[in-house]
Structures are given as C-alpha cells and as structure tokens.
C-alpha cells in the first residue's frame, strides 16, 4: 500500500499510535523531553563506539538515508517518501527508547545515546517542517 492511497478518517487522525501525524508529534515531543531532562549533563563530546546495540545501528543506518529520501521526493514531487521515512524513524526511535536507557547508564554511554536521540528529533523536526507540520515540544 502506498501512502498516497491513504484513507482519511476523523477517528484515526487523533490517535497517537499507528502511522499518523500525531504519532510523529508524540515521538518528537518525547525525544525533546529526553533532551530537557538529561541534556545539560550529557551533551558534550561523545564516543560513537558506545552505539553498538542493534537498535542504535538501525537508527544510524536509517538517518543516513535522509538525503536520499529528500532527493527522491524532490525528483517525483511526492511527499510520501518523506512521510514513510519519518514514520519508520519514529517507530525505530520508539523501540530504541524502550531499551536504550539514559538514566543509570555510564556517562559515556548515556551521552552517546542522548546524541543519537537528539539526531532523531532533529531529523523528525526538519522532515515535519518540510511537510508543513510545526513540531511540538509538549503534548
């Protein structure tokens, strides 16, 4: 199913689960909250070698595809590529958030994870802005 075949539903647009704009906003707000909670102590230099978990690697690989997705979307003038990319990124971030804890992790690991989540939030925000959606920091 292509995202261009999307069936609109008033019931669905306000759900925070599933592939909706609210889900993107919720993920962005949750990641913003992580930065507010832990940012001051951990947003310095970080060691990327601490990001060896499969969830971290999946996110990093997905983040690397953002330029490709933007290019494809600009070539065929279809925002669905960006939408699909952002939804996948949000799902990856949600799974990682459950297992890649910052609190009670060694400082070097916590800092690397926080930088990873910060990169996800930044890409989510930029992608939403390209789609005409203003990212929210609280829900």
What is the compact description of this entry?
It catalyses: tRNA(Arg) + L-arginine + ATP = L-arginyl-tRNA(Arg) + AMP + diphosphate. Residues 24-139 form the DALR anticodon binding domain. This protein has six helices and no strands.
Using brief descriptors, characterize the structure shown.
single chain, 139 residues, nucleotide-binding, tRNAsynth_Ia_anticodon-bd, 65% helix, mainly alpha, EC 6.1.1.19, Isoleucyl-tRNA Synthetase, Domain 1, aminoacyl-trna synthetase, ATP binding
List the helices and strands and how they pair.
Elements: H1 10-13, H2 21-42, H3 54-63, H4 66-76, H5 80-99, H6 107-130
Helix pairs in contact: 2-5, 2-6, 3-5, 3-6, 4-5, 5-6
Function: Catalyzes the attachment of arginine to tRNA(Arg) in a two-step reaction: arginine is first activated by ATP to form Arg-AMP and then transferred to the acceptor end of tRNA(Arg).
Domain DALR anticodon binding: 24-139
Pfam family, one: DALR_1
Structure description:
By secondary structure, this protein is mostly helical. The chain has a domain at 52-139: Orthogonal Bundle (Isoleucyl-tRNA Synthetase, Domain 1). It has six helices and no strands. It has helices spanning 10-13, 21-42, 54-63, 66-76, 80-99, 107-130. The radius of gyration is 16 Å and the shape is globular. 24% of the residues are buried. It is an enzyme of class 6 (ligase). Catalyzes the attachment of arginine to tRNA(Arg) in a two-step reaction: arginine is first activated by ATP to form Arg-AMP and then transferred to the acceptor end of tRNA(Arg). One of its GO terms (biological process) is mitochondrial translation. This is Probable arginine--tRNA ligase, mitochondrial. Keywords: Aminoacyl-tRNA synthetase, ATP-binding, Ligase, Nucleotide-binding, Protein biosynthesis.
């Amino acid at each position: 199913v292509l995202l261009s075949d999307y069936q609109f539903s008033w019931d669905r647009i306000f759900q925070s689960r599933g592939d909706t704009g609210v889900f993107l906003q919720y993920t962005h707000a949750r990641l913003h909250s992580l930065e507010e909670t832990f940012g001051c102590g951990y947003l310095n230099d970080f060691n990327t070698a601490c990001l060896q978990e499969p969830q971290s690697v999946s996110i990093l690989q997905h983040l690397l595809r953002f330029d490709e997705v933007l290019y494809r979307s600009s070539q065929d003038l279809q925002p669905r590529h960006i939408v699909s990319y952002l939804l996948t990124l949000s799902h990856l971030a949600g799974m990682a958030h459950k297992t890649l804890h910052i609190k009670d992790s060694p400082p070097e690991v916590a800092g690397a994870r926080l930088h990873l989540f910060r990169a996800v939030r930044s890409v989510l925000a930029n992608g939403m802005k390209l789609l005409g959606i203003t990212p929210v920091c609280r829900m």
